[in-house]
Design brief:
The structure holds 2 protein chains of 2 kinds. Chain A is 47% helix and 13% strand. Chain A is of the alpha+beta class. Chain B has a domain of 93 residues: Alpha-Beta Plaits (2-Layer Sandwich). By secondary structure, chain B is an alpha+beta fold. Classes of the chains: A alpha+beta, B alpha+beta.
Chain lengths: 367, 136
Amino acid sequence: MKEKSPVEMGYELLFGPGHPGSGNFSVKLRLDGEKIISARADPGYLHRGFEKLMEYRTPMQNAVLSDRICVFEPLAWNLVHAEAVDKLMDIEIPERAKYIRVIMAELSRIQSHLIWYGSMSAGTGFDTGFKLAFGYRDYILDIFEAVTGGRLYPAGYICPGGVRRDIPNGIEKKILWVLDKADKMKFLERIENPFLRSRMKGIGLLKTEDAIRLGATGPVLRSSGMKSDVRKDDPYEVYGGLDFEVPSLRDGDAYSRYLIGIREIEESIGIIKHALKSMPEGRLKTIKPGFTRIPEGEAYVRNEVARGEACIHMVSDGSEKPYRCKIRGPSLLHMIPVLEYLLKGQQIADVPAIYWSLNPCPADTDR
Amino acid sequence: MKMRIMTEVIKNLFRRPITIRFPNESNPVSKNYRGEHCYDINKCAGCGLCAKVCPNRAIEMVETTNKGKTKKHLEIDMSKCSFCGLCQDICPAGAIKLSTDIPSPTTNPLSLIKRSAIMKEEKDENEKKTWYQEGH
């Protein structure tokens, strides 16, 4: 086959991995002037081999490791891993621990959506939004520090069998105060920033059929018009008893993905308030940290994390350590097929807007 | 619109600043904060559970002989430690605890290996100072 000349192939531009707006991720763009002919995602800058590492550690040690899967929402991944082990070991979780798990997972979702909003604003040149979002997020990190002992990494706070320690006295009041602060994000939807609107409206259109075909989940799928949420469809923990709506929008462009983040923050605030009200007293965990044998068998769990559907398939051969732990993160499909599909035919200036509207997490993509 | 800006400006005049004067002031850390380890060698039975549970293998059990007595105690490599606190949870005697002190940065990698002889014991809540106040 004759090799194509550089003129025929088009000019190549690397978006990342050193680009401030991309994280540890790279997209190779083929250009015709300002127009993108084709895009090729180039992951692998943050690969740490969690699936293999987990085969050499006990479930309690893996709980600490599972923080690192996604940098933006460690608590949500803690929960997925803990649920997989719980299912394998057939443990009944105490009711209070279930409520604490849900509250922490929802706080983690709000925090992650605030990062999403902040980086989306920064990517499109709206610095006020970036600072607002990261400012509000800091209040939530204070709660994480008081409850788990670490601002970012909870170190397996949600562990197999329950949670590692109780929430401190009087934290409920602080949580409610922080939720009122985060509730102010609503005004961002109301004011409809003209700059943000002009940069994101009608850009990166993803139809419902395409979203399903390419494997999009979570907010990306919901903003394309499909009401799909694991919390509603297949309730885990105590989500079945809490009342909340699943927001969905029909446009499927970058701007609707931006709006859906704010709507989801509102829903999460409602969930936490409801859970705080109905949280019972009681025990916190059923097993002690140590070296319990996992019974032979396999378990598959799926959870709704901020980015979409997170799944873990764990196989055990009856020893202390899992035989295989397959992790399915939501970002992998958003970052490779969906991003490549959306970038085709767009302008270079729209790359950051599309890239950040998908709520990417390079750490979760590479794992 | 103008009025809204003016009210915001006047409010801001009397608002306390969010920033702090860093070397002199510090943000207080919460009681649950997972910081540098405290280790009580007299309580330690030398069972080695902490070394086994440590996810990063930062804890190693070593033997020392003092006045004809051999005692097993631990050695922590702080450069490997992720401050998860599993050692604190599993210790049956309560010999190892995570304090709220932030580990001080260093240029000497060897000083990161904490031998139990030089490891500090639990301090009073009042005595605690942050690392930069101690003059590192």
